[in-house]
Amino acid sequence: MIPIYAILVDYNKPLEQSPSYQALNKQKDIITIVCDNSTNIDIDQAQVQKDGNVYLSMHGNRGLPKAYNRALDHIEEENPIMEGFVMLFDDDTEIPDTYFECVKEMVAADEADIYLPLVVDGHPEQGYLSPSMMKEVYIHRSKDPFSLSQKELCGINSGMLIRLSLFAEYRYNEDLFLDCVDHDFIRSMRQLDARIKVMDTQLEQQFSAFDPDGTKAIQRFRMFKKDIKEFYKGTVKGRLYCAYVIHRHKASIFLHTKDWRIWIQ
């Protein structure tokens, strides 16, 4: 049987409250790896192992790329030829049984290297959160992901299904921390001519409401700014577009928080 792994990065959410973990834990033919990025709660390592899953402590929040890479290194130690596929999840995604059925169908059909599920987030008027369109520097939501070409397809980490052999000589960019990690990966895989396919199954992503606390919003913005500058640093057009996105993001934060300090960040 072709091995299927799941990497779940947990950040300060008890696993009994994580819909992602609860869904994955029912799939006993999937090897689930919990990367613990938590800073203020203790994930029950013994319970994870009792559930038959793998627990990896990151000793604090080290960011998504380092968590993914730690899990990939663990997989490669156990599976040196990197056979099979791996799924990526955060701790707050609702995963229906139909998703796992679709994953197994895609693995059996073996028609692509990267599979992207449909992901919604409560804003249908804006289109799907994922897959999205990435064309040169522009990344936009799509209302019809199935119409996107290979050169346009992009998507978020949640629910992404990836052929493990792509990681034989690749690891996630650890100069990123949280934002653009997925887009950076897809961009790199396009350069390797990886085949990307949209899965006909849907996930629901839960996002926290915008925090009106200006101090917290500014702290989060600083992280976003560092990541997006890293992502767009490669071209002049990218750097110009990055400046526009940063300014737009500042305006949005100011609109929600009325905290003028955002303009000097």
Output the helix-strand order.
EHEHEHEEHEEEEEHEHH
Ends distance:
52 Å
Describe the biggest sheet? 8 strands, mixed
Helix content: 25-40%
Percentage of residues in strands? 15-25%
Mean pLDDT: 96
| CATH class categorisation of the largest domain | Alpha Beta
CATH topology term of the largest domain: Spore Coat Polysaccharide Biosynthesis Protein SpsA, Chain A
Number of domains: 2
Q: Tell me the structural class.
A: alpha/beta
Extended strand count: 11
Describe this structure in words.
- By secondary structure, the protein is an alpha/beta fold.
- The chain folds into two domains: 4-205, Spore Coat Polysaccharide Biosynthesis Protein SpsA, Chain A (Alpha-Beta Complex); 214-264.
- 35% of the residues lie in helices and 22% in strands.
- It has seven helices and eleven strands.
- The strands form two sheets. Strands 3-2-1-4-10-6-11-5 form an eight-stranded mixed sheet, sandwiched between helices. A three-stranded antiparallel sheet has the order 8-7-9.
- Strand 2, helix 2 (45-50) and strand 3 form a beta-alpha-beta unit.
- Helix 6 (214-231) runs antiparallel to helix 7 (236-257).
- The longest helix is centred in the C-terminal third of the chain and has 22 residues, at 236-257.
- The mean pLDDT is 96.
Main attributes of the structure:
2 domains, 7 helices, 3-stranded antiparallel sheet, 265 residues, alpha/beta, 8-stranded mixed sheet, Spore Coat Polysaccharide Biosynthesis Protein SpsA, Chain A
Give the SSE map.
Elements: E1 4-10, H1 19-25, E2 31-36, H2 45-50, E3 54-57, H3 64-78, E4 85-89, E5 93-94, H4 97-109, E6 114-120, E7 128-135, E8 138-142, E9 153-154, E10 161-163, H5 181-191, E11 196-205, H6 214-231, H7 236-257
Helix pairs in contact: 6-7
